Amino acid sequence: MNRQNIGIIGAGRVGAVLGAALVRAGHRVIAAVGVSAASKARAEQLLPGVQLLPADRVAASADLVLLAVPDDVLAGLVNGLVETGALRPGQIVAHTSGAHGLAVLAPVTTVGAEPLALHPAMTFTGTEDDLRRLDGASFGVTAPDHLRETAAALVADLGGVAEWIDEERRPLYHAALAHGANHLATLVSEAMDRLRDAGVRHPEQVLAPLLGAALDNTLRLGDAAITGPVSRGDAGTVAKHLKALESVAPGSVPPYLALARRTADRVIAAGRLRPIDAEPLLDVLGSAARNRRDTEERAA
């Protein structure tokens, strides 16, 4: 797209990296907002020489204003920029929220600015390593029809690929990403903790090849890649798992139960496990869930 003067409001992990990617593509980041010590250090590393200014001054000086702030503060920021007169006709105001679409940017249209929702489907560390990961990454984009070409060009400049998401489906799109990526990180951390409890000194070495293969197989094969005791209906093994977890890490029991039940539902629906063969397994899971509820109710 035509080279733009860009202002970044929110020099966090996402904003600073996207700013660096845009500079790499030939755009000019003229100012950014960085309040915390971490944001200032990140801006200095990824956006050297870029001025750190208040939000209204950043917005007023830019052709494209990139809002890279937490979801829950986005609406207040947008309203504040409009109320302070920081925006003008013809500007593009883009946010990086996955859950929000164009509705949250509706106030900018009252002053003639153009709204754009531009979410990178990527996890960020806030370092230069992220620039490499952006190449080929998908961006969930919601844009007015007349801005689609501009949005696609902007995503291409970032090294990504546009995935067009309807306004009403943004929350579902974002839920899917959070469920897959954020909960995966929690799940892997839990697995590493339980391996340490079992005496494994370097759980990451044990898990890396196993999880790498599981992820690769699942992305290629879907439910056909599910293996393990639940997929086989091994009720006795699952009962032993639950007993061991209850004795060492009771907080891990509810997520294990939820995921085991969901795994059972999927392999049954896929025809991998016959309902009649699944009954002992489902009994174990149901009994454990009831016992947990009874325990919690007595404790309350």
TrEMBL record:
The name this protein goes by in its record: DUF2520 domain-containing protein
DUF2520 domain residues are 138-263
Signal peptide (from-to): none
Gene3D superfamilies tied to this protein: NAD(P)-binding Rossmann-like Domain (3.40.50.720), ProC-like, C-terminal domain (1.10.1040.20)
Coiled-coil ranges per UniProt: none
Identify the residues that the record assigns to the Putative oxidoreductase/dehydrogenase Rossmann-like domain, covering every copy: 3-120
- Which species is this UniProt entry from? Dactylosporangium fulvum
